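User: structure tokens for this one?
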Amino acid sequence: MTADTAATGLADGWYALSLLHDRIEAYIERALQSGHDLSVREYSLLVVLSRQHDGPGGHLRMNQVAEAVVLSQSATTRLVSRLEDRGLLQRYLCPDDRRGIYTDVTPAGSALLEQARPTHDAALAGALGQAAANPELAALVAAVEALNTSSARGARPRDYRPV
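Assistant:
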């Protein structure tokens, strides 16, 4: 195998992974928008923030939130502002460092998240089912399903973000 062949194979693998991601995200986006007036990014942000806890290190600063939802800090700020305007999130100053800002899910945001979770999960399962029928994507779907199996046993990738 030459270097060019290896690079082409790697690029083909990346293309297939990107295609799988885009198809799944579009499928979930349609379901969340039609059922709950939420985007995938908004849903992901609510999930990340709902998993915070009280105590040291329990709340995320805006830069940590941006990393968790894979957006720039400015895009994350706009996203938080949109959800705050809808009454789904609230921001407040960090009690230990008044320069830091925390964001919490409001009771309305928690309720919407709980309503949207079954829609999200069903859309994800449906999208994976469709993708599994495509021979070019079937191995990637199997890999995603294997991650689900390992996370059920408590093993997660080191940089796992629950989104």
